[in-house]
UniProtKB/TrEMBL annotation, chain B:
InterPro entries referenced in this protein's UniProt entry, alphabetically: ABC_transporter_permease (IPR051393), MetI-like (IPR000515), MetI-like_sf (IPR035906)
Major subcellular site: membrane
Entry keywords, A to Z: Cell membrane, Membrane, Transmembrane, Transmembrane helix, Transport
Biological processes, Gene Ontology terms: transmembrane transport
One cellular-component annotation, GO: plasma membrane
Lineage top rank: taxon: Bacteria
Family, as annotated: Belongs to the binding-protein-dependent transport system permease family.
Protein's recorded name: Sugar ABC transporter permease
Protein's organism: Streptomyces inhibens
Localisation: Cell membrane
Membrane topology: Multi-pass membrane protein
CDD domains: TM_PBP2
Gene3D superfamilies for the chain: MetI-like (1.10.3720.10)
Transmembrane segment boundaries: 12-36, 73-94, 115-136, 165-185, 228-247, 275-297
Length: 324, 307
């Protein structure tokens, strides 16, 4: 798989990005090549030696960055199998015995299992809510003319660029008054609210690109607006929904600021990200470094595994917003 | 029909708008109001104090070191991250050996590189921050152990404990976490640039480094600009908060050398019980953000006129 084929694979929005390159592909055949007959042996030789040097150099720097990225991750995984003396004594050494007990200790005693479940519950709820409400708002804003349409749109989209921390101070007290602090449903509502700006921005752009004729046909056949939306438009918008769904899933799963402020009352209700940081703080007293590395690895591996399996979709989902 | 349409619109908008208004819009507006009060956050009593909170900012040394550090991150983080991203993406796309039909080509295995580089992007900030915190640990961390192993026994910095370099250590972790995303993003942009542009330039005698500045960068400028805004917001807001709060001593230390604006807002509210003053700091963060976005937009517009 080479770099050139990538953008065309990205579903949805990147379609336009993929186009010009198809044109480039065809021009590769006869055109510019015709003028460069047999005589250009010398210049071609010069550039090809330049090309060789460049090739070695580029592989060199690319490998170095590849090592810089993977070494810390491998180091954490390897450390999670060591005992504490090995971690301190030989940070780069391999474990003499595989200490699987670190993992079970982190999972049970350090509550990583519980935190994992908490994150699953909250993100499960908020992802469904974000996609449903975001798609509904985006569809109405993209497809219907009504007074105040632009105002509502910019109200949503404006939320993307403002510092979240500013809103969090009053939000804490709003949640407190509504008895939503330290609850799953409170967190779900807040996750939805802070995911809406990007979701509405992205999906309304996507709905605008879909053909109008299909929805019109459904309406003429007697379907209601609601039914048209759920049975005709949503299925058509699937590529966009998948992209923004992956974006939101990772964003919400990795969310740290919101739970740090709004979910501090009950230690058993911590999200995975919070739990990991709490584990890091408490190991300072207990000195359980191996358990901490195991916790870190437990948090890290499922996401990496999911990324490797759905690699293409994840990349498309995360870069979709910036390529638009 | 018409009636049905408006009922449908209202029905679809009411729930998302209500949630958004309650949890995002209203807290923002309240924050601006609170910045003119002496609210502690602990009790409901407060009174208007006009611009007192803002006047107090001018004499608050911690605030100014937070501004300094936030602006340092804002200026350097996007430049370093995007430059590395562009550099690696360019290497991936034109660093390859000459093939028969194409003048320039990607390096072999570019797909694998991109998969690896993207790893940090899917990990949460706490994972990355803790990983680096361990690596920086002066006694058992990977970095000092590495220095020892290659014979540099005297070079054993305190990393996050040294006020001179603590901020750079945090920034290195942020760069590490974000470069891969831009490699993949720019790489997708570069491969959509028609090959005959390069072909023509190389025939005219340009070398590959010229083609980067004359062809690749100008044609990618829109994407670079978007990335710049993303990275700027990341350097000012949520991400900077999380990295500094988890990694640094204190947090914010040593000696306020890593204090950043979002962390200071958080500490003033939840540690010191000065919610009114904290929102004034938050409003100044908002102002920095708006100035930054305006500058990047303006720069972008000028660049685009040249082509």
């Amino acid at each position: 798989m080479s770099a050139q084929t990538d953008p065309a694979d990205l579903p949805g929005v990147t379609k336009e990005q993929g186009r010009p390159q198809d044109g480039a592909g065809t021009s590769r055949l006869p055109g510019p090549r015709a003028g460069r007959g047999g005589k250009d042996g010398a210049p071609a030789g010069a550039t090809s030696s330049e090309g060789k040097v460049l090739n070695v150099f580029s592989h060199g720097v690319l490998v170095i960055w590849g090592l810089l990225v993977t070494m810390p991750l491998l180091w954490a995984v390897v450390s999670s199998f060591k005992d504490d003396t090995e971690i301190f004594g030989s940070p780069w050494g391999l474990p003499s015995v595989l200490h699987f007990d670190n993992w079970s200790r982190a999972w049970d005693k350090a509550n990583m299992g519980q935190y994992f479940l908490n994150s699953l519950i909250v993100v499960g709820g908020s992802l469904i809510g974000t996609m449903l409400l975001g798609a509904m708002a985006a569809y109405v804003l993209a497809r219907f003319d009504f007074p105040g349409n632009r105002f509502v749109y910019f109200l949503f989209v404006g939320g993307m660029g403002f510092p979240v921390i500013l809103a969090l101070v009053p939000l804490f007290f709003v949640m407190k008054n509504m008895a939503l602090l330290d609850t799953y449903h409170g967190l779900i509502l807040v996750y939805i609210a802070y995911s809406l700006p990007f979701t509405v921005f992205f999906l309304s752009g996507f709905f605008k690109t879909l053909p109008t004729s299909v929805a019109e046909a459904a309406l003429i056949d007697g379907a209601s607006h609601t039914r048209t939306f759920f049975q005709v438009m949503l299925p058509m918008a699937k590529p966009g929904l998948i992209s923004v769904g992956i974006f939101n899933f990772l964003g919400q799963w990795n969310q740290y600021l919101l739970p740090t402020v709004l979910n501090v009352g009950d230690p058993d209700k911590k999200m995975l990200t919070q739990g990991l940081v709490a584990l890091a703080v408490s190991q300072g007293y207990k000195g359980d470094w191996s358990g901490l590395f195991a916790g870190l690895t437990i948090a890290m591996l499922p996401v990496l595994a999911a990324y490797i399996i759905f690699q293409r979709q994840v990349v498309a989902g995360l870069t979709a917003g910036a390529l638009k | 029909m018409k009636h049905g349409k408006y009922r449908f619109i209202a029905g679809f908008l009411v729930l998302p708008l209500a949630i958004y208004a309650i949890f995002v819009i209203s807290p923002f507006l309240q924050a601006i109001y609170y910045s003119f009060t002496d609210w502690t956050g602990l009790s409901p009593d407060m009174k208007m104090v006009g611009f007192d909170n803002y006047a107090r900012l001018f004499t608050d040394d911690v605030f100014w070191s937070a501004v300094g550090n936030s602006v340092t991150l804002l200026l350097l983080l996007p430049v370093v991250t995007l430059s590395l991203g562009l550099f690696f993406a360019f290497m991936l796309n034109v660093g390859g050996r000459r093939r028969k039909k194409a003048v320039i080509g990607g390096v072999r295995g570019s797909g694998t590189y991109k998969i690896l580089y993207f790893f940090p992007q899917v990990l949460s900030v706490p994972i990355v921050a803790l990983l680096f915190q361990f690596a920086y640990n002066p006694e058992s961390g990977a970095l000092n152990a590495f220095f020892k192993a290659i014979g540099l026994d005297n070079v054993q910095p305190d990393w996050l404990g040294d006020p001179q370099i603590a901020l750079w250590c945090v920034m290195a972790a942020m760069v590490w976490a974000n470069v891969g995303f831009y490699v993949v993003l720019f790489s997708a942009g570069m491969s959509s640039i028609p090959k005959d542009f390069y072909e023509a330039a190389l025939l005219d005698g340009a070398n590959r480094f010229n083609t980067f500045f004359r062809i690749t960068l100008p044609l990618l400028w829109d994407t670079v600009q978007t990335g710049w805004i993303y990275m700027g917001i990341l350097a000012l807001d949520v991400s900077a908060f999380a990295f500094v709060q988890i990694m640094s001593v204190g947090p914010g230390g040593p000696d306020y050398s890593t204090e950043v604006l979002p962390l200071y807002v958080y500490q003033k509210t939840f540690r010191d019980g000065q919610a009114g003053y904290a929102t004034a700091i938050g409003v100044s963060l908002l102002i920095v953000t708006l100035i930054f976005s305006a500058i990047v937009m303006r720069l972008g517009r000028r660049e685009r006129l040249e082509f």
